[in-house]
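Continuing the series of single-chain predictions for the mutant panel. This is the parent chain; the variants come on the following pages.
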Amino acid sequence: MTLVVLLLVVLLLLLLGGWVVGLTLALLGYALTGLVIGALARLVVPRTEGLGILATILYGIAGSLLGGILGDAFDVGSFVRFLLSVVVSALLIAIFSAGSPRRTSSF
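Parent structure:
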């Protein structure tokens, strides 16, 4: 009986480990996608010098998720969904970088 319980515990730990690894890889994928989409959105929006790389990634992830939701709602293809993600990220960057303080160089 203890062997069965031990095997069930090992099986549960393996399943939990696989779930954790899968979640980690999914989050890494979201971060990389957010970086790419955020970088493309920063190219579209002028004067974003005060925005850091972490904010770019976070706005990219948010824009990617919102663009994907809008794309699913309107039932469009993956290319249009990608463009929606870039546009939403650009809007988020434009809105939130307008209120951020600018970095000025003093010589």
